[in-house]
Amino acid sequence: MFAARSAPRVLNGARAFSTSPAHSLARMQLIGRLADQPELTPTSTGRELVRYALGVKGGPKNENGERQTSWFRVASFAEGPGRDLLLSLPKGTLMYIEADARMDTFQTQDGSNQSRLNLVQRNFEALSRPQNRNSDSESDRSAAEDPHSGLGAS
Fold first, then answer.
1. For the region Disordered, what residue ranges are annotated (predicted)?
2. Which residues form the domain of 101?
C-alpha cells in the first residue's frame, strides 16, 4: 500500500528550494547568424555597449524549401577579451547566446503604443565563422578547418 505524502509547506512566501526571494525571470537561448559585424555604442551614462542583430531560422519550410528568419536585436555589456572577441566576429558568424529578455512598451512620435523585445546578452559562444567560397585566404577558413581559431565547429 502506498502512503500519501503531503506537499512541503512554504513559510513566509519563500520558495521551498531556495532561501532567496522570488524574482521575475525571462531568459532566451538563441542559435543564429550575425546580421552584420557587432558595433560598439556609447550610452547616455558614459558606458559602452556592443549592439548586434542575430537571424534565427525556424518554423516550417516555405514553397522554396527555406525556413522563416526571425531577427533579434541584442545588447552586450561584455568587457575585456569577451568584448574584443565579439567585436571581431564577421557578418554570418553562427552564434549561441543566452540573454535576459524584457518587453518594453513605449509611445512613438505619432502617439501610438509599441512594444519591443529587448535582449541583454549574458553569455555567448561563436560556433563557426562564415565560409567564403570565393576566397582561399587563411582568414576566410571556417573554424572546423582551423583548429587554432578557438571556435568550435558546428
1. 124-154
2. 27-129
- Does any domain span residue 16? no
**Total tally of structural domains belonging to the chain:** 1
Nearest residue to 89 via CA among 49, 132, 39, 28: 39
- Buried/exposed code over 11-33 (b: 16+ C-beta within 10 A; e: otherwise): eeeeeeeeeeeeeeeeeeebebb
The pLDDT tens digits of the residues spanning 79-130 come to 999 999 999 999 999 999 999 999 989 899 999 999 999 999 999 999 999 8
Secondary structure element (H or E) that encloses residue 127, with its range = strand 113-128
Q: What is the pTM of this model?
A: 0.66
Report how far residue 101's alpha carbon sits from residue 150's, in angstroms, rounded to the nearest whole number: 28
Are 93 and 33 in contact by the 8 Å Cβ rule? The answer is: yes
CA 123, 153, 68, 53 torsion: positive or negative? positive
Phi-psi region of 114 (alpha: psi -120 to 50; beta: other; left: phi over 0): beta
